[in-house]
From TrEMBL:
It is an enzyme of class 4 (lyase). It comes from Siminovitchia thermophila. It holds the Pfam family ECH_1. GO terms for molecular function: enoyl-CoA hydratase activity. Belongs to the enoyl-CoA hydratase/isomerase family. CDD domains: crotonase-like. The keyword Lyase applies. Transmembrane segments: none annotated. This is Enoyl-CoA hydratase.
Amino acid sequence: MITTNKREKKDLEFVLCDIENHVAVVTINRPPVNPLNTKVFKELLHLFGQLDEDEDVRAIVLTGSGEKAFVAGADINEMSGLDLVGIHKMNKVSRNVFTQIENVTKPVIAAINGLALGGGFELALACDLRICSERAKFAFPEVGLGIIPGGGGTQRLQKIVGQGIAKELLYFGDMFDAARAHELHIVNKVVPADEVLAAAKEWAAKLAQKPPIALQMLKVAVNAGSNTDMETGLTIENTCFGNAFSTEDRKEGLTAFVEKRKPVYTGR
């Protein structure tokens, strides 16, 4: 059984984090549209590093403050003042964050409460699962600014929707709604606007009750396997299977099944 243990991660300016019942809720807090700047990227990098090491955290929800936006892109005011060297430094930090979120050892659920544009869309794509408001809007508008996505959007999007649809969304840069995002499998679920965070926390709570190492091994098998050929992917899966099978949680899961009771997983 999961017990209540509520606490906060502090000392961050633009990112909030509350932890309760093994679920961390991370909120990007730069209202009204939560743009991503270098400070936000560094705070996310620091925070997700902490959450990855925190054994009390078993699932993570990522969202934006307010009702208007999840994240409406990168901070154009900061970007417009950078030269090539500066933008490469900013882009390196952003890519490090998205890669870290993609590979953090706990499942990450994006609660998309509004606009997810440009870098905000890329941030959502780095998460494992995505739940969005029926009022959410998505777009990669970069081409209209004379640039292209630089945080992995050109790569992660096509893995989900296929190359043809990805090129359509990237080339035109048009905004599309939650219904189309669901149709294209960009989001897993669409809910009423006032239920987004609750729905994401509900999923996170369910995941927090599952064996942590098995979830971690599933994530490694899927993520690493998607970037290689079938035979190599099967080898990765076999290794991850062995790692999960060697845990105390595997013994607990099988014993609980035989005894017809609910398993209690410890992450060991």
